[in-house]
Design a protein that fits this description.
With 82 residues, this protein is α+β, with helices and mostly antiparallel strands. It has one domain. It starts with a helix and ends with a helix. The model has no long low-confidence stretch (mean pLDDT 82).
Amino acid sequence: MDKSWEDIRRLLGGQMRRFRTNFIREQEGVWRCSSPTTLLLPNGHKIEVAPGTVLTRGTSFMGVELARLLDDVHGRDSKPQP
């Protein structure tokens, strides 16, 4: 992953786990919003996602690849803890 992607992940931190609770993973890289949600970006912008919105990996939503972020959080949360 490039540095800018790592910076985004680090800056969003635990906010992504809360954000993810409003999505249903339909398959790898495809997420459907189940309830209204907002993600606050480090630059002060807000991304608001409406129920029924489908996010697909490889596609930007308001300039951010949200499906990739959701996949990353899902992958980290799914790993067994030692």
